[in-house]
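Example record for the data management plan.
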Amino acid sequence: MMFDRKTYAKMRRAGFDVGISKDKLAGAMLHVLLEIPFGTKNLKETVISHLGQVGQMAPTRDINEVWNQTKKKAAKLHPEKFILDDRNALQWHDPSRKPLDKRISPVHFDKLNTLAEAENCSVDALISKLIKTYEKERE
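Corresponding structural encoding:
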C-alpha cells in the first residue's frame, strides 16, 4: 500500500503522531541540507523527501515554520554554501555569479520610461541599445 500525505493526515487526526519536536525536525532538515549535492533544485522539496516518514507525518504548518528557521540558520552558519536572496529563498552560493543591483532611483526610472516611450520600445530594448552604444564607444 502506498502512503501519501492524506493518509498521514488521517492518521494524525486519529491520534497517531510522530512526536518529534520542531527543534529536532530543524536539526534533521539542516543535516539533510548539508548532505545534498551542490546545484540540487527545489531544496525544500528535496529536504522534506529525504526526511522520510518524519517529513511525511509532520504537519505542513510545522514543516513551513521549521523550513523558514532552517534556511536562515543554513545561510548564517554556512555562508560558503548557501545564501538567502531578496525574497528570502534559499539559494546555492555560487561565487561566479554576482548579485544584481535591483535598485534604481525613481528619477532614473521615470527618465527610462520617458525615453522608451519616445523611442516607441520597451525599457529592456532601450537598455539593450544603450549597452550596445556604450560598448561601441569603449572600443
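Summary line stored alongside the record: The chain has two domains: 5-92, 106-138.
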